[in-house]
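Notes from the pairing session

We agreed to fold both candidates in a single pass and log them together. This is the raw record for the first candidate, unedited. Please don't reformat it; downstream parsing expects exactly this layout.

Candidate A
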Amino acid sequence: MDLGLKDRVYVVTGATRGLGNAAARELAADGAKVVVTGRDEKSVADAAAELGPNAVGVAADNADPESAARLINAAREHFGGFDGVLISVGGPAPGFVADNTDEQWQAAFESVFLGAVRLARAAAGELEAGGVIGFVLSGSVHEPIPGLTISNGLRPGLAGFAKSLADELGPRGIRVVGLLPARIDTDRVRELDGLSADPEATRAANEARIPLRRYGRPDEFGRTAAFLLSPAASYLSGVMLPVDGGIRHGF
């Protein structure tokens, strides 16, 4: 199936590792041109080099109010256009209610929530009909995840913002979509499993709860993201798509 991605231009944040990187890889593999971002300049340069000539790296911090305009300008300057953005940010600090400090909440709000809002708002002002804004969120949008209190607090609010944005931008032909990953086999998930007393037992217990009985692969997530961002998904907007192996049982 041709997704229609050839020569379309996307900004993908948090793309030096994990889910953002997986999405950028699949976009580039299908012919899109990608601006990949992350906070560390060397990691960004390395990620772009691995993706090949249709990728460029721009070091940027989602919490920086100037980042949104810089990234969109980079897309236009390097590739001559701007067709969409996938906003993927690193997970906030783990912990239960009593564990997380005000500083951790504030840092997560600036990066995970407000930074995403700023970039989406800037993209909305620049995109034309056929453009798309995507958010990488979490299964915590529907159900809190033990030990991830900050994520549980922020992700549902960001999903609500995305749904509101979909309503506002739909008449202009601009789509807004979200992805809700669960146990995808990334460094972040392995780090979280490693916080338990017995990481192997924790993983086995998690896999037993997943109907497909395994963690997802990053490339599986990446292909799903590439589809949602592509013209092939032109009538999908306002959706929050679980990428979780069937673990969510509600509709």
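Candidate B (folded immediately after A)
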Amino acid sequence: MVTSYAVEPRLLRAFTAVADELHFTRAAARLHIAQQALSRDIRRLERDLRTELFVRTTRQVALTPDGVRLLPYARRVLAACDELADAFRASARPLLVDLNSTGLAQGRVLERARELAPEQELMARYESGLTGAAAQILAGTLDVSFGRFGGLDAGTRGRLASHFVRYEPMAVVLPEDHRLADLAAVPLAALRGESVYAGAGNDRTPEWTDLAARLFAGHGIAVAPPAPMAVGKEEFQRIMAKLRVPVLAVVDFPPMPGCVLRPLVDPVPLSPVSLVWRKGLRHPGLDALRTAAAEIGGREGWLDRPANFWLPEDEPGVPGP
């Protein structure tokens, strides 16, 4: 029995990464360290605690009973360490905020938050995709993002906090000469037989592709196959102009040359948007973002749902009826 020892938070962070991934290579990539260094840290932790934490075989990694017992303690220690670090650096360091793309409603949330906390530096990023942003948040290279929280896997959601911001009506971007381009609004049934681009193959946005697949199911609408990965608005617009396929979007999606944006109706599909950050984060800028979202949302009815709407069933992170 060990009666006295001090465990380094770095070792606990290595342990929780492996416990989450149950795979040393993926855990090392998440921590941005070499796999050999990660294995060395786990062996040291096991030596310090005088117990085996993982059962390793050529096929899988599994927690031992002592590993299962350690995990909640490790999470609490790391949360306390993160909270302590945030408390002492919050007023000095910028808050890094991923807005996904220019022109979306969350840009107005950021601008209002800057007005509410002018002494804080809120720095915008435009990386696109909550799944990609969540990995950066957990790695400590990003603080806050917006997107479909329920589209993240349960393990990732468990390590993040969220604040529901908006039911955002969805739309479709059509080439100007598309057969539906003259409609003021596009009924979902009118897209039957179409192949609609929704980010398939983009490893930063699977939550959006999944939302599209759920929406299209039973309507005879296909999710378009992967397109070349485009980085930046200009490249995305160039690729979409070349492919000339409808693009699933939201009503605030910025204009695209040679295309028209039309809201979807019958039903009105809603994209659930949340503000997402790492559990334990403390920062005045985060408080300002939450206040700004509630203020603008209350004024503009962001939490209202139309009479005939569609949402994914049992969507985590979405307010009840």
